[in-house]
Amino acid sequence: MFPTLTRMTITPVAGYDSFLLNLSGGHAPWFIRCVVMLEDSAGNTGVGEIPSSEGILAGLEQCRDLIEGQSLRDFRQVLTQCKARLEGNGPEERGRQTFDLRVAVHVLTAIESALFDLYGQHVELPVADLLGRLGRQRDEVEALGYLFLLGDPDKTDLPYPKPPESPRDDWDVVRCQEALTPEAVVRLAKAAHARYGFKDFKLKGGVLSPEAEADCIRALYEAFPDARLTLDPNGAWTLDQAVKALNPIKHMLSYAEDPCGQERGYSGRETMAEFKRRTGLPTATNMIATDFKQLQFAVALNAVDIPLADCHFWTMQGAVMVGELCNEWGMTWGSHSNNHFDISLAMMTHVAAACPGEITAIDTHWIWQDGQRLTTEPFRIKGGRISVPTTPGLGITIDKAQLEAANRLYHSLEVRQRDDAMAMQYLIDGWQFDPRRPTLVRD
Ligand code: GKR
Ligand code: MG
Q1: Which residues bind substrate (predicted)?
Q2: β-strand pairing of 30-40 with 45-51
Q3: Banded model confidence at residue 49, pLDDT cuts 50, 70, 90
């Protein structure tokens, strides 16, 4: 006997963030997310976490009557109906920011996650065992150390987190301080390695000149010669700039993430294919293969080796489908991330655990949020790995007090959409986003 879905609760939340720089600007001291909780008549609760925006909150509301009152047995039909209703809102585009601005796919993922969590609890299986054709493929998921260049928080009057008076380790200190040089990047990597044991690192680029960012990779390579390294300028560079900056360091990189994008009448998929031909470097993307149609074109052009199929914008089942295709086609699955809480960490872990074949270490921003939590026991990164739980569902329990506090923080702010330009304007007067110009290159 399957329980009935009794109530959906939508809770926008906020957490604190450091002054992380990227092509979109500088992260504000807060990031916002949205938590969806579904209760059923058996007394269980399923959860999902996605980015938040007014469009996303409205999209979730739009699906409420398709969910509440339905049987958990029909959870796939519920998802199909929600998808159809959201598609009725019209086509959407990812946009040119570093982050994905679509509504429908995010909304669907939050509902999907909560439904899989409930279904898993009902049939007493972890979500990883339910996703995809093959179910769980691994008991541990590798994560990479996601490094950023950081702005100086003291150049703003914004409430960025400060190093604690008695820091637990160097990571507690460095994640709150300016980092704009190769030495500072290596210090971040060493501190993250000491706490989390990462074997691989990704540096977010699109901030300094391509050559200055290549120098950061040189320094990382010297410090961690065995790590899989990558650099991600979010398509800011021209094809020629990307080849010039990365060719000399290609032996240090395992792959290049979105090194170039659309230019002079050529699509990003075309320039990435040309980049691969000219450098021989494998490429990864979370910008030019973000749905199945785009993936088809990317594969046809041989533009991408590693689609970073973040479940938040592919759906959990969609991300695993990409993993299955990668496995069949000799490509490598990976996952992108944005700032997130521990519910998303659980979602990404289950998805990665269900992808067959060799996958690359998943992205996670969690190290920047570590210490903040919405669940009673966030998954931990140890030795660069996250254990996949064997408990039913997502294997997490919401900490109601923490959730309420994060919701209060959200309501105390006026932030309703991610905006990285606001903080950047403290560093450069009148700064505006330009998808083709690194954030600190403005002469
Ligand atoms: O958090 O600033 C950031 C990143 O730039 C993020 O917005 C990107 O979506 O992590 C992302 C990426 O790999 O492009
Ligand atoms: Mg990326």
Answers
A1: 27, 98, 146, 202, 232-234, 286, 336-338, 365, 418
A2: antiparallel
A3: very high
Single out the catalytic residue among 83, 122, 193, 204.
204
**For residue 87, pLDDT beyond 90:** yes
CA-to-CA distance for 311 and 317, rounded, in angstroms?
8
Are the beta carbons of 72 and 40 closer than 8 angstroms? yes
Residue 443 pLDDT grade (very low, low, confident, very high; cuts 50, 70, 90): confident
Question: What does residue 360 show for φ and ψ, rounded to 5 degrees?
Answer: -95, 155
CA 39–ligand 2 middle distance (angstroms): 34
- What domains, with CATH codes, occur in the chain? 5-126+400-411 (3.30.390.10), 140-387 (3.20.20.120)
Would you call 204 a catalytic residue per the annotation? yes
Tell whether pTM > 0.90: yes
ipTM: 0.97
Q: Which ligand is nearest to the CA of 25?
A: 1
Atom of ligand 1 at shortest distance to CA of 234? 14
Q: Which of 27, 99, 213 to mutate to test the pocket of ligand 1 (most atoms within 8 A of CB)?
A: 99
Burial of 93 (0-12, 13-18, 19+ CB in 10 A): exposed
